[in-house]
Specification:
alpha+beta; 2 domains; five-stranded mixed beta sheet; 42% helix
């Protein structure tokens, strides 16, 4: 049995896609705008946005795909939470470094617990 394609949350609003190598799979992943190959870790990342998981499942139809359960949530709601927090930090005149730190912690929290915890 062939190894599964695995999709899981990454950092900075990206998804990690682990593809068992075939030239056909590489050509398919290259059709996604903003994709990046990470040679040290041997995986691809793609922008995590509305419909990206569904797009990957459709793109690799016929392959066995394992999607991390944390990815089954509402990305638009998460974006609106991050935007609201960023606006509040701006109104309170927090420094850019504080913005970066707070939003990074919030993203990791949301990636870990999903929207149900918010």
């Amino acid at each position: 049995m062939a190894a599964a394609i695995r999709v899981r949350p990454g950092d900075n609003g990206r998804l990690i896609v682990v593809l068992p190598y075939t030239p056909e799979r590489v050509e398919k992943i290259k059709t996604i705008p903003g994709r990046r190959w990470h040679p040290e870790e041997k995986y691809w990342t793609v922008p995590a946005g509305t419909g990206m998981v569904e797009r990957l499942v459709s793109l690799f139809a016929g392959d066995r795909i394992e999607v991390d359960p944390a990815l089954h949530r509402d990305w638009d709601a998460i974006k609106s939470i991050l935007t609201a927090v960023e606006n509040e930090l701006t109104l309170r005149r927090y420094s850019p470094r504080t913005h970066e730190a707070y939003l990074g912690h919030l993203r990791r929290f949301l990636n870990h617990f999903g929207r149900a915890a918010v």
